[in-house]
């Protein structure tokens, strides 16, 4: 019969608790990605690359790296608050592990609620049949996280639409010009690409985009 207890530092730990801990650790990267600014940043950068028609430039690795460091920059106040309120007291053995997890949720929940649209939050509250609360911070994470994810996807796609407009205008102008000149066999994308790059460089596109992404979070 399989032993249901594992000896850890002289104490007996149920196997089920170990499996639960490993499951949480495996899901932690995904949870952190969906609970931070990473998703909106990554999708916005992907839309920009597609709108410019540069295919795999910058490559995916570069976009992920940019998104990670922008996320660290945006989430820096939240990370510092978690470190001060939860991690440091737990490291000094002032609070238990459960108390540390509860305290760590508070800054993340506040960040997500500040950037969550009321309509998305109300929808998931209604779907989950959650009990009425006086403050939004009292809502469970199972309601806050999907609401935040829905709002982030909506805002990322809205940003992508706005990014497409100027580049789409260039494509329309180039295509109309080529047709009027009878050069229908010449691919419009080949001609419009330099103008797209020139426009993006002229307006300091990277600085404008990064500042817009950072300032879009509250």
3D architecture notes:
By secondary structure, the chain is mostly helical. It has helices spanning 15-34, 38-52, 60-74, 76-91, 97-114, 118-128, 141-180, 188-202, 205-215; strands at 5-8, 11-14. A two-stranded antiparallel ribbon has the order 1-2. β1 and β2 (11-14) form a beta hairpin. It is elongated. The N and C termini lie far apart (55 Å). 18% of the residues are buried.
Descriptors:
two-stranded antiparallel ribbon; elongated; disordered N terminus; 9 helices; mainly alpha
Can you tell me the overall shape? elongated
Strand fraction equals under 5%
Mean pLDDT: 82
Count the strands? 2
Q: Please describe the biggest sheet, giving its number of strands, its sense, and whether it closes into a barrel.
A: 2 strands, antiparallel
**Which structural class do the helices and strands define?**
mainly alpha
The helix tally amounts to 9
Strand order of the largest sheet: 1-2
Q: What share of residues is helical?
A: over 70%
Distance between the termini: 55 Å
Low-confidence stretches: 1-13
Round the Cα radius of gyration to an integer and report it.
24 Å
Please summarize what this structure is.
The chain is mainly alpha-helical.
Strand-helix topology:
Blueprint lengths: L4 E4 L2 E4 H20 L3 H15 L7 H15 L1 H16 L5 H18 L3 H11 L12 H40 L7 H15 L2 H11 L3
Antiparallel strand pairs: 1-2
């Amino acid at each position: 019969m399989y032993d249901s207890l594992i000896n850890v530092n002289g104490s007996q730990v149920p196997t089920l608790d170990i499996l639960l801990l490993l499951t949480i650790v495996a899901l932690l990267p995904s949870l952190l990605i969906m609970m931070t600014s990473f998703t909106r940043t990554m999708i916005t950068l992907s839309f920009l690359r597609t709108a410019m028609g540069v295919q795999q430039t910058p490559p995916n690795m570069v976009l992920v790296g940019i998104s990670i460091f922008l996320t660290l920059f945006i989430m820096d106040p939240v990370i510092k608050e978690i470190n001060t309120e939860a991690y440091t007291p737990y490291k000094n053995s002032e609070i238990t592990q459960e108390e540390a997890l509860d305290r760590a949720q508070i800054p993340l929940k506040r960040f997500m609620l500040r950037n969550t649209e009321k309509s998305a939050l109300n929808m998931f509250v209604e779907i989950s049949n959650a009990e009425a609360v006086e403050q939004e911070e009292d809502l469970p994470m199972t309601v806050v996280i999907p609401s935040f994810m829905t709002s982030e996807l909506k805002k990322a796609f809205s940003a992508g639409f706005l990014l497409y407009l100027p580049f789409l205008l260039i494509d329309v102008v180039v295509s109309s010009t080529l047709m009027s000149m009878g050069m229908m066999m010449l691919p419009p994308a080949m001609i419009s690409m330099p103008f797209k790059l020139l426009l993006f460089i002229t307006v300091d596109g990277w600085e404008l985009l990064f500042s817009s992404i950072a300032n879009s979070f509250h």
